[in-house]
C-alpha cells in the first residue's frame, strides 16, 4: 500500500510517502515561500528520490481543514490534479486529527483505559472529571480574532467536535476537565504565555519537532481510512473550513437582523431539490467565422 | 504533421473553465462552470467564495472537457493554464491543479496571461487572422489598446489610468439598481434609450492620446443620479444607460480607430468581457467599415472568461518552445507581455 500525504494548511508545506507501515520519505519546509512555489517541487522530489511514481499510489491523503483557506486549497488542488490523471482516490484527513497524531506514540502510555472507547458525543467527558493520568491532546491552530481552531483528542480519538473558539473559553473548559493536557500547533507560540498564566491543570507543550503539521501524520491516518474504505473522488472532495467566507457571514447576520422569523422558500420546497447553479456546460464553438448568435447564453 | 492538442484551464475570476484545443484554433470542447448566479447575490465577485467554488468544480470541468472532446489525457500534448492577472486565490486553484496534472502525466506546462488569452479568442473563429493587428481589450479588470506584433508579442499603446471600462459599467448598474453583472444589464436597458439625452464627459487624458479614463464618466453619472434624487426628478434609466454607454463607446472607438489610421493598420480586433457589448460592437463595426479596416470580434461566449482562448494562446507559446516549471506561481498583477 502506497500513500502520499500532503499538508499545506499552515506555514509548513509538507509531503510524505507512506508504504506498508513505513514512512519512506518526508519533506517539510517552513521558509516563508508560498506553498504554490514549494509544494509540488517537493512532491516531485519525493517521487524521484524514492523511485516511485504517481500511478503507483493507492490513494492521496490530504489535509482537509481547518487551516489557512488558501493554503488548504493549494494542497487540495495539487492533490486533485495528481489524482485526476490516473483516477486515484483521495482521502480527507482532518488537520487537527493529523496534528494530534504527531504525538500519538505517547498517548497510550499516559491514558487510562476509561477513555479508549470515547465516541464523538462525549462532550461531557471533558466536563466530567477525568482520571489524573488521562492525557488530552489539544491541537490549537491560530484562527486569528483571538480564536483557535481546536478539538480535544484522547488516544488519537476525537472528543466532541472541531471548532473555532476563543482561547479564554478553551482554557475554562480545560480547567474544568481534570487530566493532563498537551498542546501543539501553530497557536502554541501565540498563546503560550496566556495558557501558562491561566491553566490550573497539568499541561505541557510539544517540542518544535512535533509542533506543526506533518504530512507523515496525514498519510498514516490516510492509510487507516483507506483500509476502512473512506476514500472520495476528486469531484466529491470537500474541505472543512469551519468558518464561512466573511461576506457570507455578514450577509446572514444582516438577514437575521432584518427578519425575526425565517421561512423556508416555498418555491424551493416545491422543486424538491435545488438546482446546481454551477453546472458545467460545453459551449460549442463553430468551426467557421459566424456571428449568428450574438446573444450570450442565459447563464453567462 | 501530427495534431497538437492543448488542455486549457482558466480560474482567474468567477468562471471555472477547461477546454481542449486542436492545432491552436479548433475548439474540441469549451467547458464553463459559471458562478455568476452565486456572486449576483452579493452584488459582485466575492474572492473567497470564488476560490472555494473553483476547487469544488475544477475536476468536473476538466473531466468534462476531455469527455466532450472525445479524448483522454493520452491525447493531450500540453497543459496551458491562466497564471495571472486575476484574483490570487482563484488563480491558485487552476495553477496548482494544472501543475499537478502536468507532473503526474509528464506533459509540458505553459502558463498563459489571461489578457493574452482574451486577444487569442479572435484566432478561434477567424482562421485567417494573423498578427500584426490592433486589439482593443475591454473587460471588468482591464482596458488596453495594444498592437499585437506577433504571437505573444505586444506593444501596449494605451491603457486606462483609473477604472476599467467594465468596472464603470458595474458601478453605474449598481447605482441605478440594475444589479450585477453590470455590462449586459446596462446594454439591455440602453436599447430603448436615447444615447444623446445626457452629455457625459468623454474622459480625455493628458500625456498619451491613447490612454483611457473612465472614473470621470462614472462620477458624472453618479452626480447626475444624486442631483435627480435631490430635486425629486425621475431618472430615465434607458436614457441614462444609453448616454453613459455612448460616452464609454466614444472613448473606446475613437482611440482604436485613430490608432489604426495613424499607423495604417487594416485589422482591428476586440477582446474581453465588455467586447460582447452590442453597442460597442456595432459602432466599431460601422466605423471600421467607413475607414476600410477589417473588424474582428469573438462571439460573445468567447468574450467571456473561457479556457478555449487559454488553450489557443498556450498553443502558440507551445510552438515557440515556452515551458513552465513546477514552481510556477499565480501572479495576480501580471503585466501583459511579461513572463
List the SSEs and their pairings.
The complex is a heterodimer of chains A (300) and B (339).
Chain A: E1 2-7, E2 13-19, E3 22-29, H1 35-50, E4 59-63, H2 69-86, E5 90-93, H3 95-101, H4 107-110, H5 123-127, E6 130-142, E7 147-154, E8 157-166, H6 167-175, E9 178-184, H7 188-198, E10 203-205, H8 208-211, H9 215-227, H10 246-258, H11 266-271, E11 281-282
Parallel strand pairs in A: 1-4, 4-5, 6-9, 9-10
Antiparallel strand pairs in A: 1-2, 2-3, 6-7, 7-8
Chain B: E1 5-10, E2 15-22, E3 26-34, H1 36-40, H2 47-68, E4 78-84, H3 88-105, E5 109-113, H4 114-125, E6 133-138, E7 143-150, E8 153-159, H5 165-175, H6 182-190, H7 215-231, H8 237-263, E9 267-271, H9 278-290, E10 294-296, H10 300-303, H11 308-319
Parallel strand pairs in B: 1-4, 4-5, 6-9, 9-10
Antiparallel strand pairs in B: 1-2, 2-3, 6-7, 7-8
Helix pairs in contact in B: 2-3, 4-11, 5-6, 5-7, 5-8, 6-8, 8-9
**Number of helical segments of chain B?**
11
Sequence stretches where pLDDT stays below 50 over 5 or more residues of chain B: none
Taken from the alpha-carbon principal axes, the silhouette of chain B is globular
Number of domains of chain B: 2
Care to count the β-strands of chain B?
Answer: 10
Strand order of the largest sheet of chain A: 3-2-1-4-5
Can you offer a commentary on this structure?
The complex is a heterodimer of chains A (300) and B (339). Chain A is of the alpha/beta class and 300 residues long. Chain A has 2 domains: 2-98 and 213-227, 2-Layer Sandwich (Nucleotidyltransferase, domain 5), CATH 3.30.420; 103-205, Nucleotidyltransferase, domain 5, CATH 3.30.420.40. Chain A contains 11 helices and 11 strands. Chain A has helices at 35-50, 69-86, 95-101, 107-110, 123-127, 167-175, 188-198, 208-211, 215-227, 246-258, 266-271, and strands at residues 2-7, 13-19, 22-29, 59-63, 90-93, 130-142, 147-154, 157-166, 178-184, 203-205, 281-282. Chain A has a 5-stranded mixed sheet, with helices on both faces. In chain A, strands 8-7-6-9-10 form a 5-stranded mixed sheet, with helices on both faces. In chain A, helix 7 (188-198) links the parallel strand 9 (178-184) and strand 10. In chain A, helix 1 (35-50) packs parallel to helix 2 (69-86) and helix 3 packs across helix 9 (215-227). The two termini of chain A are 45 Å apart. Chain B has 339 residues and is an alpha/beta fold. A 5-stranded mixed sheet of chain B has the order 3-2-1-4-5, with helices on both faces. Chain B has a 5-stranded mixed sheet with strand order 8-7-6-9-10, with helices on both faces. In chain B, a hairpin with a 4-residue loop joins strand 1 (5-10) and strand 2 (15-22). The model of chain B has no long low-confidence stretch (mean pLDDT 95). Chains A and B meet through helix 1, helix 2, helix 10 and strand 11 of A and strand 3, helix 1, helix 2, helix 3 and helix 10 of B. Strand 11 (281-282) of chain A pairs antiparallel with strand 3 of chain B.
